[in-house]
């Protein structure tokens, strides 16, 4: 359940949108119809040349900022995807070089987070210790760990994010849904490889967060419908099964068990545990065993759990989370993530990040049930967007004045369920079967997954659980965990290790 303040703000936003729509005049409608009938202007296409030192050698590459227009079966324009791509110069046969399509999640998020944090040739100069980067000016630096050293790169901003938008008679919201989004991104990929003559390149899909769901849904669309073979999926902090996310938890004990290790990691980071542990990995090994056995069994018993056993479990949860035993008992042994981030450091008047439990900030209301916001978002959003806008103009020569949308809350709030997802027994969204079937259809398709120990949203233990229940052959599945949160690459040692692991995966090392 959302805090009351957020519910009110959301309701007011809906009312404001309704008022705007109601105020539309006939003149506005005529103007919109004329605009829809007119062909779009020529698409943007700007290429610039750059150099980067990586691994002790200098690499030359070309950056291209362009718009890719999509059309429907009737040859009508439907969408404009704004994309940035990077290709290594001097490649004798570009079609032999791997090509990786990169996107973030949300849903409703542009790709700047992966672009400027891990994958691209430039990254933000961000503190590695989860401290506040402060105000501008911010700095970009060369990224010697860029994945460009192993693959050419294409960054995708879905419709309604970045500069991407609907065209013609379509509206942005027509693309906001599980199937609608996956269909449009698949068609973008088909169009891109056609325009750039990359049909025969080895192809990888790299998605973060909801991008995990999008990646999985792209597999049947690309391989079966469009006959585009995929060599690998690279999943960063993926959402794959809504039943393991810590948001809709009524009657769902699995989310509590799969998130317990992430709570322990964050409590350990902030020195909130009552016992001493030699290191994080020793702690997590014990918590994982407990979460998947004694704790899960206790939750299974529900209200029939004996009082003595309930107190024993509460005592153990106190050891692993640092939360007060009385609070755990009042919570019926079920620690809700959105409350945990407020409760962990309540006595200090602070909350920790839901996306990265290492981040912390002061709270205005020390007795509230939920925090005022997420310190991770507050401390990372401005530096990303400001740096990216500067990079577009000063390095790539892109001088668009229309608004760049890094995160579209409206898209997130109105996202449509998958086809067949309505009805009394629709249940949770789980698309792991799409990936598993893809590995049966294409016996060369491999899956790499990365998660951060301090991510309280798509927890690393939940990710392992999902993938180990997916049906993907273990020989073609690689699961790695790293220090840090949802964007574990903001921690410099994890950035370097993750990048090397992905490069090795692409090169089959």
Characteristic key phrases:
single chain; 509 residues; alpha/beta; Rossmann fold; 2 domains; ten-stranded mixed β-sheet; 39% helix
What integer value in Å does the Rg equal?
23 Å
Question: Runs with pLDDT <50, length 5+?
Answer: 1-34
Query: What's the number of helices?
Result: 15
Order of helices and strands: HHEEEEHEEEEHEHEHHHHHEEHHHEHEH
Mean pLDDT over the full residue set: 90
Which helices and strands occur, and which strands form pairs?
Blueprint (H helix, E strand, L loop, with lengths): L3 H19 L3 H12 L7 E10 L2 E15 L5 E12 L10 E5 L8 H8 L2 E3 L15 E3 L9 E5 L8 E2 L11 H18 L7 E6 L1 H16 L6 E5 L17 H16 L10 H22 L5 H15 L3 H6 L6 H7 L6 E3 L7 E3 L12 H20 L14 H5 L18 H10 L4 E7 L7 H9 L8 E6 L9 H16 L2
Parallel strand pairs: 4-7, 4-9, 9-10, 10-13, 13-14
Antiparallel strand pairs: 1-2, 2-3, 3-7, 3-8, 5-6, 11-12
């Amino acid at each position: 359940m959302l805090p009351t303040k957020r519910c009110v703000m959301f309701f007011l936003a809906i009312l404001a949108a309704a008022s705007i729509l109601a105020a539309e005049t006939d003149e506005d409608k005529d103007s919109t119809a004329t605009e829809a009938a007119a062909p779009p202007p020529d698409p943007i296409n700007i290429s610039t040349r750059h150099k980067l030192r990586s691994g002790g050698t200098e690499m030359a590459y070309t950056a291209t900022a362009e718009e890719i227009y999509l059309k429907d079966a009737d040859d009508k324009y439907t969408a404009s995807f704004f994309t940035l791509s990077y290709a290594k110069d001097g490649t004798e046969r570009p079609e032999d070089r791997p090509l990786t399509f990169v996107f973030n999640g949300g849903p409703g998020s542009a790709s700047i987070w992966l672009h400027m944090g891990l994958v691209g040739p430039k990254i933000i100069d961000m503190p590695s210790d989860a401290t506040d980067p402060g105000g501008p000016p911010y700095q970009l630096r060369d990224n010697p760990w860029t994945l460009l050293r192993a693959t050419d790169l294409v960054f995708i901003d879905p419709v309604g994010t970045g500069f991407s938008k609907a065209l013609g008679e379509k509206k942005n919201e027509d693309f906001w849904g599980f199937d609608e989004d996956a269909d449009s991104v698949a068609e973008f990929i088909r169009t891109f490889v056609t325009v750039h003559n990359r049909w025969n390149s080895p192809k990888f899909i790299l998605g973060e967060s909801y991008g995990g769901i999008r990646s999985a849904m792209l597999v049947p669309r690309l391989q079966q419908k469009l006959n585009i073979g995929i060599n690998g999926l690279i999943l960063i902090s993926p959402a794959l099964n809504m039943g393991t996310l810590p948001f809709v938890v009524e009657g769902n004990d699995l989310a509590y068990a799969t998130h317990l290790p992430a709570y322990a990691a964050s409590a350990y980071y902030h020195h909130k545990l009552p016992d001493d542990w030699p290191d994080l990995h020793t702690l997590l090994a014990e918590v994982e065993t407990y979460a998947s056995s004694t704790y899960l069994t206790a939750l299974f018993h529900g209200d029939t759990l004996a009082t003595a056993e309930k107190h024993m479990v509460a005592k153990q949860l106190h050891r692993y989370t640092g939360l007060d035993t009385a609070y755990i008992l009042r919570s019926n042994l079920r620690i809700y993530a959105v409350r945990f981030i407020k409760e962990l450091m309540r006595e200090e008047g602070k909350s920790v990040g839901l996306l990265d439990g290492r981040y912390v900030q002061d709270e205005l209301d020390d007795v509230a049930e939920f925090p005022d916001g997420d310190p991770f978002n507050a401390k990372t959003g401005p530096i990303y967007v400001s740096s990216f806008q500067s990079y577009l103009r000063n390095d790539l020569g892109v001088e668009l004045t229309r608004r760049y949308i890094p995160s579209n809350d409206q898209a997130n709030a109105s996202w449509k369920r998958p086809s067949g997802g309505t009805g009394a027994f629709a249940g949770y969204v789980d698309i792991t079967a799409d990936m598993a079937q893809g590995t049966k259809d294409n016996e060369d398709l491999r899956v790499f997954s990365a998660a951060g120990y301090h991510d309280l949203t798509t927890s690393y233990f939940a990710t392992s659980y999902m993938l180990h229940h997916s049906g993907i052959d273990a020989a073609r599945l690689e699961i790695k965990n790293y220090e840090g949160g949802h964007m574990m690459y903001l921690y410099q040692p994890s950035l370097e290790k993750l990048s090397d692991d992905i490069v090795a995966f692409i090169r089959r090392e």
